[in-house]
């Protein structure tokens, strides 16, 4: 979400001039919201959002709001949510917070600057200038901290205009975890040691974890922390994640995991964790030590905390052997019937159809171009039939200076 994006090209194509009513009762195990889109407003479950120049959410995306895959007991996303919740068994859990949030919650509360690229229309789904579909579960960190719980998990669906491939989807699920301690090196170290002795925190013996990250100026300790407290909190975070990975992947003896430095405006230092899957590193989570300004906003001036945001689809893909992220949205009974609440079973492909490849090329009308807007257009037109969109040629005419792009679109049906 922190990728650099510039301007917007295709705007509210699918929403403009459309009056569309959808009552999501298609699947036996999920219902979407009741929504109406007109020229001037979007009404979701009876609540009205006035459209403005920021509105860019499409009916395709709205139809996925509240499918709540993470709450259907038989769905792999829900199975993994419950496994993680049972690992962090003494955490307070929130899993039914509405994904419609204010930009204040999604950005400002998290110290994301007004001009930060992550706010771009081309990366997010806006209902209007001040309301959007949450782009991460971090949007509720402050809410969780204000609830009084010192350890909590928040799971839910999140929405991002993103590229299209087997591990990226515009709607996916995250689980946020936050833990905070007294800002006192002795007390914090005692709490961490107690967790280790109780067996809650363990090294991931069965998985190979590579972590050569160190605290350095590019990924610094915060001024208000001492090296001792930071050390204790960071090791609690790393033990927590590694022991969760160890538990989840107990039956995968050769799993490789690595920690790398990262940047988030709301944590410092920050890291990401990747798992080797099908020969490639797959990023599964982001985390770090919570910025003290955020703790202050929650009234927790004398506490120090860590937070993590897990990508549930990514973890489920590795754990259940699900090769394509679109499968999680399959309404085909042959998908859901394979799974049993509380159990990890390897996915058995129920049909394999050959791909159909089509190339499309076009001249750009002007210099501004956003690939995410193109991906959104492709998804609106072709839906989940699209498996991959790849730029295969980028040509600028030497005389006219006009630019032409050629994309290869790979279509493949998952179930028919
Ligand atoms: C975040 O969203 C941060 N809020 C995470 C965080 C929380 C950092 C708390 C610090 C403290 P990021 O954009 O990297 O970070 O996304 C987190 C995870 O979501 C990724 O590691 C990945 O597993 C998953 N993810 C991101 N984009 C997609 C996508 N389009 N499809 C599926 N999963 C995705
Ligand atoms: Mg990331």
UniProtKB/TrEMBL annotation:
Q: Which GO terms describe its molecular function?
A: ATP binding; phenylalanine-tRNA ligase activity; tRNA binding
Please report the stretch or stretches of sequence annotated as the Aminoacyl-transfer RNA synthetases class-II family profile domain: 98-341
Q: Which PROSITE patterns match?
A: AA_TRNA_LIGASE_II (PS50862), FDX_ACB (PS51447)
Keywords, ordered alphabetically: Aminoacyl-tRNA synthetase, ATP-binding, Ligase, Mitochondrion, Nucleotide-binding, Protein biosynthesis, Transit peptide
GO cellular component terms given for this protein: mitochondrial matrix
Domain FDX-ACB span(s) in chain numbering: 351-416
Q: What class of enzyme is it?
A: ligase
Question: EC?
Answer: 6.1.1.20
> Which reactions appear under catalytic activity for this entry?
tRNA(Phe) + L-phenylalanine + ATP = L-phenylalanyl-tRNA(Phe) + AMP + diphosphate + H(+)
InterPro entries per the UniProt record, alphabetical? aa-tRNA-synth_II, aa-tRNA-synth_II/BPL/LPL, Fdx_antiC-bd, Fdx_antiC-bd_sf, Phe-tRNA-synth_IIc_mito, Phenylalanyl-tRNA_Synthase
What CDD domains does the database record attribute to this sequence? PheRS_alpha_core (cd00496)
Q: Name one Pfam family in it.
A: tRNA-synt_2d
Where found?
Mitochondrion matrix
Q: What does this protein do?
A: Is responsible for the charging of tRNA(Phe) with phenylalanine in mitochondrial translation.
Q: In its UniProt entry, what is this protein called?
A: Phenylalanine--tRNA ligase, mitochondrial
User: Which organism was this protein described from?
Assistant: Phascolomyces articulosus
